[in-house]
Amino acid sequence: MTKEGLLKRLSDCVVDMEEDLVIDVAKEYVEAGFDPQEGIMDGLVDGMKRASVLFDEEEYYIPELLSCSDAMNAGIAELQSHMSKAAEGQSAGKVVLAVVHGDTHDIGKDLLRIMLETNGFTVIDVGRDVPSEKIVDVAVENGADIIALSSLMTTTMPNMKQVIDITIDRGIRNDFKIIVGGAPISQKYADSIGADGYSSNAIGAVNLVKSLLGVA
Amino acid sequence: MENLTKRELLKNILEFKETPYIPVMLNATSLSPALYNYEIPEVLMNPEKFAECYMGTREKFGFDSVCAGLNMGVLMDMAGHLVNDEGVVSGTGEETIHGLEDLNKLKPYDPEKSILLQNVLKTIKIIRREQPNEPIFVIVENPASTAIKLLGSQRAYRYMAKQPEIYMKIVEAIEGAMYAGVDKLCEAGVDYIWNPMPSLSGFCISRKMYEKCCWDSNKRFNKRIHDNGTKVIIHTCGKYDDRFDLVFEEYGDAWHLSNTETKKVKEEYGDRIALMGNIPSTSIFLEGSPEEVYQYAYNECMVGGKNGGFILSGDCDIPPSTPHENIRQVIKAARDAEKVLYKK
Q1: Which of A13, A166, A211, B179 is most buried when burial is the number of CB atoms within 10 A of its CB?
Q2: Is B35 within 8 Å of chain A by CB?
Q3: Residue A20 touches partner B, C-beta closer than 8 Å
Q4: In this predicted model, what pLDDT tens digit does every residue of B88-127 receive, in sequence order?
Q5: Fold of the domain spanning A94-213
Q6: Contact across the interface for A185 and B316, Cβ inside 8 Å
Q7: Would residue B303 count as lying in a domain?
Q8: What is the ipTM of this complex?
Q9: To the nearest whole angstrom, how far is the Cα of A118 from the nearest Cα of chain B?
Q10: Strand (E) positions, B147-242?
Q11: ∠ at Cα B163 (B158, B165), nearest 5°?
Q12: From CA B258, how far away is CA B313, in angstroms rounded?
């Protein structure tokens, strides 16, 4: 099969949620002598981008998107085992991602992680129900460009402001762009707590991160 | 109307009998403990504190109906001893089922021994004694939503996408326990079960998946409550525009709306099912000026209250920091709208 044909199959495996088949196709791709990095970007990541479009068009929902990302990650693991460290590519920026303290709803956060990684960002996922101090500590330790905060509950959204206030108190507010999202959050709320940006969904959040970092 | 209690008024509204009253039923789940400086876990374990803050908050603002509990303890009692995804005993039962084989590890649910359920039953007694005319409700998620918590949402959604039969078996495995719990609530005389379904909305799963994985179980569960003579208000939390026709067959007496236009739903279903809602909890309730809140609430009443069958509410739980004046404006809007709608 041609390189283009194999890339298309890698992409299709992701869109079709073929977590097992994608490994076979990735092996076939590498055995044919093609570049693993290209296989990731033009095959697997392409498939995830197509899945994101289907999500945006309400053809795919969270279950499908999670299953597509499982297939993509399985394929990436296989291709990365054939790559040297140096070939793994440059990061478009560093994002610390967390669900704020008191809140355990992490699907939105995980979707954003997938989307950001798909778009070439390095993501440090701090998890869910994370104390505000810890989020800021991790951002400082990793020299993050962006802190992205999620909250699904009206009871926990004040903890987003707490994170922002900690960066102000420590005199490091301007070291990061801080963005917020989640079902109860609005642009008005984001403005009121001094966030740098708001998005109602994962795809919008990727565009927001790109715009804040000046990434094309 | 003067002779009817609020419980009877609500029953009339849910049964589409002519009722010149618009109840204002606010879900103040987090606001009520916050006003009394209590934490939610603290009130869940103490019926006196629970009743004190929920009754007191209702009385302070003058809205209708009191919440008597947030769940029946099914998850905690059946799976609280199991290890979750983080490798620790969960306590709550969430994210403890990793596959069908784990179902064998669940403990049986005994309503008589369930601390959380027994606390809810005690709370119901206190509220009934102290505020006998007030409708009482309990927040109960249905088996389809509970199974998502038991599995953890990501695993549940993955099963729905690739092995739906496993997810459905897990739903069926907990239905008996949930029926046993809800039977006790009905026997205790709650006026309605408030059944939120955020994890099943169009923000999360497709209509097709909803129909395949959840719909039959939802119907069975709500019918059980109905057969016990208790009302069900289904909180269509999230996007439901593409599946209201399915929800219509789920034995709800009312839909508590969010993320949709009341006018649109009223036009399509308003002569067949009562509606509740639909003031945005954050952008209006929390962030709006008193004038904006009043106007939004008044408009909702004029749209939803036409020909009756309407309950004014937020579109979800009211944030704990909601300005108190905004709550008062919502109640004022309902009283003003009644005068115009029902020529009082």
Answers
A1: A13
A2: no
A3: no
A4: 999 999 999 999 999 999 999 999 999 999 999 999 999 9
A5: Rossmann fold (3.40.50)
A6: no
A7: no
A8: 0.90
A9: 19
A10: 192-196, 231-236
A11: 125
A12: 10
